[in-house]
Design brief:
Order of helices and strands: EHEHEHEEHEHEEHHEHHH
Largest sheet: 7 strands, parallel
Organism: Streptomyces aurantiacus
Keywords: Oxidoreductase
Number of strands: 9
InterPro entries: NAD(P)-bd_dom_sf, SDR_fam, SDR_oxidoreductase
CATH architecture: 3-Layer(aba) Sandwich
Number of domains: 1
Protein name: Short-chain dehydrogenase/reductase
GO molecular function, one term: oxidoreductase activity
Distance between the termini: 25 Å
CATH class: Alpha Beta
């Protein structure tokens, strides 16, 4: 069955791979990018099955207009993919206010606003799928990436809540958490804060040297074409997995982080219970829906 997808950030990386593979299998794609002309080759090959629009995802007015127009002109959109984003690297102290605002606006606020713009359409048409390209950086954290991690942890929290809100309307949500992959996300697709000498010998200086080519690059086991194929296969499933961890590095990092977090939690169990009021005789129950949500 032919389906229609709406994807942001399609000029390169995962967005480009998704667009290419979906068109090749016969689906329709509403592709947005800052430079829609970057898709001229696909437009020449696939014609009307590729709908294109310029979009700066940080412009909320433009974002809503593009989403509304895509749904109006294409009648139905089955899958919405929030993919636009970039990395801001450097110690928190090295970053400017403008860099911080831009990172949050692009990686976090824009994803939330896209969800808000698309939700009404998906709900009125009886359901659909929403895919958020997140990152394993929303499950773990490393120095010199604090603002990037803030946006990725933030979007994880947003969708863990919003997924439960949208489930009654037949809207499935998946957070895609890839590890390091062979895209231009690193040196070609990232922004660096201005260096401070105090951080030169620490993680910030080391990461700066890696991205500039002074040190060997980080291992990048992820194949972006295979990641795109896995995302498409996930969307073809009837049930949407809340999280889709992709890449051997992502799996290893998530496993270690979750085990470490659980061990620390268990170590503090007695202290946690000791802070209950004196009239409490048993641990408080989990919030309503927590157990169901954990099964996703």
């Amino acid at each position: 069955m032919t389906r229609t997808w709406f994807i942001t950030g399609t000029s390169s990386g995962f967005g480009r791979h998704l667009t290419e593979q979906l068109l090749a299998r016969g689906d329709r794609v509403a592709a947005t990018a800052r430079r829609p002309e970057s898709l001229d080759d696909l437009a020449a090959r696939y014609g009307s099955r590729l709908w294109r629009s310029r979009l700066d995802v940080t412009d909320t007015t433009e974002l809503r207009e593009v989403v509304d127009r895509a749904f109006a002109e294409l009648a139905r959109i089955d899958v919405v993919v929030s993919n636009a984003g970039y990395g801001l690297f450097g110690a928190a102290e090295e970053l400017t206010d403008e860099q911080i605002d831009r990172q949050i606006a692009t990686n976090l606020t824009a994803s939330i606003q896209l969800a808000r713009a698309a939700t009404g359409h998906l709900r009125r048409q009886g359901g659909g799928r929403y895919i958020q390209i997140a990152s394993i950086g929303g499950q773990v954290a490393f120095p010199a990436m604090s603002l990037y991690h803030a946006t990725k942890w933030g979007i994880e929290g947003f969708w863990e809540s919003a997924a439960a809100e949208l489930a009654p309307f037949g809207i499935g949500v998946t957070l895609v958490e890839p590890g390091v992959s062979r895209t231009n996300f690193g040196a070609g697709g990232s922004v660096l804060g201005a260096p401070l000498p105090e951080y030169a010998d620490g993680p910030s200086g080391q990461l700066r040297a890696i991205l500039s080519g002074e040190l060997p690059p980080l291992p990048a086991p992820g194949d972006p074409a295979k990641i795109a194929a896995a995302i498409i296969a996930s969307a073809d499933r009837t049930e949407a997995p809340l999280r889709l961890t992709l890449g051997s590095d992502a799996y290893a990092l998530a496993t270690a982080a979750l085990r470490g977090r659980l061990e620390a939690l268990e170590a503090g169990r007695g202290l946690a219970h000791s802070t209950d009021a004196d009239d409490v005789t048993a641990p408080a129950p989990a919030p309503a829906g927590h157990a169901d949500h954990a099964d996703h």
